Amino acid sequence: MGEGMSLKRLLRLSAAVAMAALMSGTAQAQIARFSDEEVIARGKRVYDANCLACHGVDAGGITEDWHIPDAQGRYPPPPLNGTAHTWHHPIQALAHVIREGTQKQGGSMPAWKDRLTDEDVFSVIMYLSSLWPDEIYQAWAERHEP
Ligand code: HEC
Questions:
Q1: Ligand 1, pocket-test mutation among 109, 116, 128, most atoms within 8 A of CB
Q2: 55 close to ligand 1 (CB < 6 Angstrom)
Q3: In order along the chain (146 residues), what is the average pLDDT of each group of 10 residues?
Q4: If you count Cβ atoms within 10 Å of the first and of the last residue's Cβ in the chain, which end, N or C, has fewer?
Q5: What CATH number does the domain containing 118 carry?
Q6: Coil, strand, or helix at residue 15?
Q7: pTM (two decimals)
């Protein structure tokens, strides 16, 4: 009987440990959202001046068919507000697309490296990510968390 009790206690204990691990795991996964309003406001100014014409008001895109290429194989500009797959790319990859564009690969996104500073590029990415719902922001942030 002594043994039975201790086994039960052991099981209860390991369940408690597993639960605690699970809960702290969940807590760790919550990465604080970037919240520097000045940077986000600067990013919106950069966006409205340079990107809005192609990627739409509030980054909502200009066509629902952004995933369908034209006869030359070029894709229309996707929305950048979290409804397309912008958030699949870590911050470095987004900065690369914005700096270099996609014209060398046959796409139609212009390069911005001669027109925007690194700070502009960072600000515009933080503005865009500020538009994303929490789950999407978290999934994105986990991709480039150190
Ligand atoms: C002339 C139209 C045009 C302008 C202006 C433009 N883009 Fe794009 N952008 C595109 C197109 C088209 C694509 C799709 C990639 C391709 O060419 O295949 C794209 C793709 C992107 C992507 C990758 C999205 C993804 O989900 O992979 C990002 C990020 C992006 N643009 C950001 C910007 C930012 C920031 C600006 C302003 C500084 C900007 N774009 C200005 C046309 C444009």
A1: 109
A2: yes
A3: 53 54 57 94 98 98 95 95 93 96 94 98 98 94 76
A4: C
A5: 1.10.760.10
A6: helix
A7: 0.83
